[in-house]
Design goal:
Blueprint lengths: L1 E6 L7 H6 L8 H10 L5 E9 L2 E14 L6 H13 L5 E7 L10 E2 L8 H18 L4 E8 L3 H9 L3 E4 L3 E5 L5 H5 L4 H12 L4 E5 L6 H14 L9 H11 L3 E8 L2 E10 L4 E8 L1 H7 L1 H15 L4 E3 L5 H6 L3 E3 L1 E7 L2 H14 L6 H9 L1
Parallel strand pairs: 4-6, 12-13
Antiparallel strand pairs: 1-2, 2-3, 3-4, 3-5, 6-15, 7-15, 8-13, 8-14, 9-10, 10-11, 11-12
Helix pairs in contact: 2-9, 4-5
């Protein structure tokens, strides 16, 4: 007999049982605990769990927030929706219950190691049913699955059976690292990119420092974070200082903050997670004027590639932004889908048309190319 429960804290679920559902995943129980303890504003956390005879079968993180339909739009459309938001506040916002996480790239629903693969789709359907019941209890009508891998047929079939609509989401950028040196990596890039990066490397660069404690520089890090956030059109959440410190504390030796110094001034930082299998770039914040002068983005990129090479890490996971640069830098892409359903049939049908206007590949040719690749 399977029982289904939704919890408000991940601490209600046994750490080892949760991690057994996500073997080899860096964003595990400790990561979600760090996120929960950070107190990210305007988000509430839910944790969906299925049990059989007292043993954990399957789990998924979820969250509740107020979602703006224009979150993924850019350019002229963003200015138009900004006008709507000013004169008709709230008309483009819906309370949202989503399976997934705002601070993880892909929807991570996991099954325990003792569960046969052929049971996974049925368990995903039960997690969806649990999410519906939990959302109904909380009075939320819009339900979504955020960033399910587009090649995950179990998710696609489960969501289709439940009547969900689908649209492409931001693809994940990956750089496999089979190289023996940074120079060997540069040799795989296009001629103009290779020449440009080698020229940048010849110029004096910032001092790079890998840290697991950032208490002394946290105010400056938050200045850089806020400045970077202000330049972004696609940011979904606003991270507090506690996110960065908690991740470093709870992830222990699997996280670091890479600091970039010009003289005695901190001009950029990069929060990364890593183990023997992958390095994940979580957030890069920088001062824009110093970034142009010292090529901080590319310096950070090459520092991460070099770290992977020197530590034998075969994969660099490099986020869901800056697709034009990542295409030049040799990345491949994995597609993600957003599934959603509104319990009001009229609004659900209106959203069927709205999704054609807000799908992210309408506004960024490089992103469209990355989605097409997947």
């Amino acid at each position: 007999m399977i029982s289904a429960q939704a919890f408000s804290s991940i601490e209600a679920i046994d750490r080892n049982a949760w991690n057994d559902c996500f073997t080899g995943v860096l964003e595990n129980w400790e990561y979600y605990l760090a996120v929960e303890k950070a107190g990210i504003e305007d988000f509430e956390w839910r944790y969906l769990a299925l049990f059989e005879d007292g043993r954990l079968l399957a789990v998924a993180p979820a969250f509740i927030t107020s979602y703006k339909l224009d979150t993924t739009v850019q350019g002229l459309v963003k200015r138009f929706t900004g006008w709507i938001n000013r004169f008709l506040p709230g008309v483009l916002e819906f309370p949202l219950y989503a399976i997934g996480s705002p601070v993880a790239e892909r929807c991570t629903a996991g099954t325990a190691s003792h569960v046969p693969a052929e049971r996974r789709q049925a368990l995903l359907e039960q997690l969806l049913a649990l999410a519906h019941d939990d959302a109904r209890h909380l009075g939320i009508r819009l339900i979504a699955v955020k960033d399910a891998p587009s090649d995950d047929n179990d998710w696609s079939r489960s969501c289709k059976a439940a009547g969900y609509q689908t649209m492409p989401s931001l693809p994940s950028a990956l750089l496999p690292i089979p190289f023996g040196s940074v120079d060997a990596y540069l040799g795989t890039l296009g001629k103009s990119t290779r020449k440009d990066l080698r020229r940048k490397l010849r110029a004096p660069g910032p001092r790079i420092e890998w840290r697991r404690n950032i208490d002394d520089v946290l105010p400056r890090i938050m200045e850089l974070y806020e400045a970077t956030l202000a330049r972004s059109e696609l940011q979904f959440e606003r991270l507090p200082a506690g996110y960065f410190t908690n991740v470093l504390e709870h992830m222990d030796e699997r996280a670091a903050c890479v600091l970039y110094w010009v003289d005695d001034k901190l001009v950029a930082f990069n929060l990364v997670l890593f183990d023997g299998d992958r390095l994940i770039d979580k957030f890069f914040g920088h001062e824009v004027n110093q970034s142009r002068e010292h090529n901080l983005y590319f310096r950070s990129w090459l520092a991460n590639v070099e770290y992977c090479i020197s530590h034998g890490i075969p994969l660099y996971e490099c986020g869901q932004a800056g697709y034009a640069s990542k295409i030049r830098l040799g990345c491949s892409f994995e597609g993600n889908n957003m599934f959603f359903h509104h319990r009001n049939w009229l609004i659900n049908n209106i959203l069927r048309g709205v999704k054609l206007l807000v799908r992210p590949d309408r506004f960024d040719p490089a992103m469209s190319a990355a989605i097409s690749e997947t």
